[in-house]
Amino acid sequence: MAALRTQGTESLSECAIDAQIYTGRSLGLDYEGSVLLLRTSDSSLSRSRTFARISGLLFIVGALYLVRLSLLSLFLIPIGLVLLCRPKLIIRPTTYAVIDFATQKLLRPSVPQSTFLNIADIRSIRGMYEVQGWDSRCAFYAQMLDSREELIATFTGTDDMLVKSLCLTLGKTLHRPSSYTGLFGEVLFRYEPAAGQSQDRN
After folding, report:
1. Is the pLDDT of residue 60 over 80?
2. How many structural domains is the chain composed of?
3. How far is 163 from 180, CA to CA, in rounded Å?
4. What is the pTM of this model?
């Protein structure tokens, strides 16, 4: 496989800006030297924590209203106070992947008991929406040269902007084809490094 083109702080910065402009800053990108970290964006954290505060306030109001019917509703107040006053204790940033260009390794901190992947052994990146029983998730896999698939990152929900951002960023930084398919197998987003362009089917 071709060597990585994205090397050095300047080119990493350009890739980060490109991906964040395209996706509305849904993915946080931190870079220092030869290391790029893909994490939950600050704006996404802020939105989630604001929602948690609103939920906490509703818990407290609801508990005070229901206390006339049952004293058990008082147990909702501590939960509401935590959500209202300390949402950072519950809503924490997630690191999806770490790319080290100096060692040519891809680290997967969001995958339990995972090991690093040699970037040279990765053929392409494939993202997909998965349904497992009652649970659903978005998952990204590294398709290896030996035909194995290795899980890179997963998250629950259907955040289209985060999906596109991960697909674009992994494709551009690793200089590998990347794509994301929806629930019914349709390709929703694709990046081809040869063309240097992304295609959004939405």
Report:
1. yes
2. 1
3. 8
4. 0.72
